[in-house]
Amino acid sequence: MKLPAARGELSAAVIETLGGGGLALPGEVPEDTDPYGEDLHLALYLCYELHYRGIDGVDDGWEWDPDLLRLRGGLERRFLDALRRDVPVHDDVASALEELLVEPVHGTGVSHYLREEGEKWHLREYVALRSLYHLKEADPHAWAIPRLTGRAKAGLVAVEYDEFGSGRAERVHAKLFADLMTDLGLDPAYGRYLEPATAELLATVNLMSLLGLRRSLRGALVGHFAAVEITSSPGSRRLAQAMERAGAGPAAVHFYAEHVEADAVHEQIVRREVIGGLLAEEPELEPDVVFGLDATGWLEDRLGERLLAAWRAGDSALRVPL
Ligand SMILES: [Fe+2]
Ligand SMILES: [Fe+2]
């Protein structure tokens, strides 16, 4: 991944520092920083990327630099405080899950739109955005493994084993997604579409990195994991249909078709074993699991609104059109 252009003072400081311009980090995050804004989310995204695959030309040692970590902590607090304030949460896990499991008859989400009226350029924009997660699909959840025990650990690893291709490199879901990108004439290089991605998309990926990297938020990470797996199967069915209808290639259809079946199984394991197992051992984590479930849905809804508003107006939903 290459260093992108800055979107404000915080991201400029991180980019300059990582790019070798000398330590230029602010001691604190300014009071008036938008917790959902482009600047904060790009800065945070770059801090996190050091824990995944690193950034071209950036010294790997920055991953554990105390000054950068201090700034990252400030950015995270700003984002997390805003989520705790703004996300309406369910009373308990059962009611949060119940709502996720009910499929609306007349859905109005992004996958519905793409299935009904998506053209190839909509699909290309959608896939370019989602590549920021899917090219590292399941990676942030793997950080939970050493923090779980018993049924929760066994269940999570069973699902992750599928996500990572069950021992076959060509079936790793991130690889299936790269093939899908090629089908749609997109560049499958890791991090290639960071520049066009808006803050609404970056926030969804930053949430999982934040939860993944903090043991204290393992309950919320499990909630996030559950939200992803439970909503994936019906959404993937619609996206497979959208790909087929728009004449995308076989790999594009295959990625989503694969997720229809796999995630129907994953949903069961996540509910019974991962959430059930975790809460049997650590019942006090239930509010965190609920927060993870609800915050994930809330950020996804914001992203969906942004995409649909742009597309309905006939506009690109990206910062820089493809
Ligand atoms: Fe997957
Ligand atoms: Fe899955």
Written overview of the protein:
With 322 residues, the chain is mainly α. The chain folds into two domains: 9-86, no CATH class; 93-312, Heme oxygenase-like (Heme Oxygenase, Chain A, Up-down Bundle), CATH 1.20.910.10. 43% of the residues are buried. The longest helix has 32 residues, at 250-281. The chain starts with 8 loop residues before the first helix and ends in a 10-residue tail after the last helix. It has helices at 9-18, 38-49, 66-86, 93-101, 110-117, 120-134, 139-142, 150-163, 173-183, 199-213, 218-245, 250-281, 286-312. Helix content is 64%, strand content 0%. The protein binds fe (ii) ion (FE2) (2 copies).
Descriptors:
64% helix; 322 residues; 13 helices; mainly alpha; globular; Heme Oxygenase, Chain A; binds fe (ii) ion
